[in-house]
Amino acid sequence: MRGLDERVALALARVLRISHPEKAEYDLMEVMMDAEALGRRDYHAGLTEPPVMFADEPLLLKAWEAGQDGAAELDEMEHCAGCNNPELPLCPFHD
Questions:
Q1: Mean per-residue pLDDT of the chain
Q2: Where are the domains of the chain?
Q3: What is the spatial distance between Cα 60 and Cα 21, in angstroms, rounded to a whole number?
Q4: How far apart are CA 51 and CA 77, in angstroms?
Q5: Confidence band of 61 (pLDDT split at 50, 70, 90)
Q6: Which residues, 6+ apart, have CB-to-CB distance to 6 below 8 Å?
Q7: Chain centroid offset of residue 73 CA
Q8: Which of 33, 32, 68 is nearest to 50 (CA)?
Q9: How many other C-beta atoms are found inside a 10 Å radius of the C-beta of residue 30?
Q10: Burial track 2-17 (b if 16+ CB lie within 10 A, e otherwise)
Q11: Of 25, 35, 40, 65, which residue is most buried, by most CB within 10 angstroms?
Q12: Residues 6 or more apart whose Cβ sits within 8 Å of residue 93
């Protein structure tokens, strides 16, 4: 199920806060990076709806959306005439 690994990792990081808060913060950052990476992969796969597993987890949802947004921006820049013009030092649209 899409997003299940990230959802489980988030739950484990929250439980870990009780005994090892420093490790939990590291694990939480890793979960957010994984959710963002899933958003990028989903964008390239044409999936625009977030995973059902993220529906009631604002942290995961926000990270997934950041991945979607980042992938869309890179895709736009790949096809941008300004970004791909060797005569321009900077793109006038994506500086």
A1: 95
A2: 4-78
A3: 19
A4: 26
A5: very high
A6: 31, 34, 35, 38, 51, 53, 54, 60
A7: 13
A8: 68
A9: 13
A10: bbeebbebbeebeebe
A11: 35
A12: 80, 82, 83
pTM for the structure as a whole: 0.88
The CB density around residue 57, as the number of other CB atoms within 10 Å, is 20
Q: Which helix (H) or strand (E) holds 29?
A: helix 21-44
Give the position of tokens 């199920």: 1
Q: Is 1 helix (H, G, I), strand (E, B) or coil?
A: coil
Rg of the chain (C-alpha set): 17
Q: Residues for the chain: how many in total?
A: 95
Closest by CA position to 78, among listed 91, 61, 63:
91
In whole angstroms, what separates CA 70 from the centre of its chain? Answer: 8
